[in-house]
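re: ur question from yesterday

yeah so i grabbed the chain u mentioned. its 203 aa long if i counted rite. heres the sequnce exactly as i have it in my notes:
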Amino acid sequence: MSKKKSMPDKKLLVAVELSLLSAIIIVMTFVPYIGYISYGALSITLLHIPVILGGIMLGTKGGAFLGGVWGVTCLIKAVFLPPSPLEGIIFKNPLIAVVPRIIVGLLAGSVCSALVKKLSNKGLAAGISAVIATVSNTVLVMGGIYLFYGSKYGEQLGISSVNFGGFFKYIIMAFTLNAALEIVASVVICVPLSLALRRAKVE
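ran it thru and got these structure tokens back, copy pasting raw so excuse formatting
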């Protein structure tokens, strides 16, 4: 029979969960080929997964905090260990490196909290939250790259800086590839893991 946890116990549990997920984010950021999988001029990321999981489990505050950890580590990596010269330029901008990642955590927490109240299926709520949060990251990051670095990015890819049509097509292609792979990864991992963690908390 489970006993209800006291308020100090709950706060300690949240602090431990945030610490563990933050540590996972840091390791995934700086260990090659774990958090970022480079292809061409950009990378597919798996770092949205611990952020989304944190948002689903810990709510908007926890999600935003973990998103901030992701964003700051992304910025640090861009300064000291950029996967490519282009990423070293792009992700020094906090409007691309930090802000979208905080929004990912906020969305994961807020969407899941709202859906859990309306849906009896917590797995479905977690899955929808994972999809929305993942797409928001891709849209905001790709949109920021297009807005702030269109010409530089186009030149790196061999696309004329004047030919914004060609650059736009590349953004759409990259968005489609990144979003598809990142959505699949987030749903496949976050849904069963969040359900298992919820069960563990109840027991």
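noticed a couple things. The mean pLDDT is 86. also DSSP finds seven helices and two strands in the chain.
anyway ttyl
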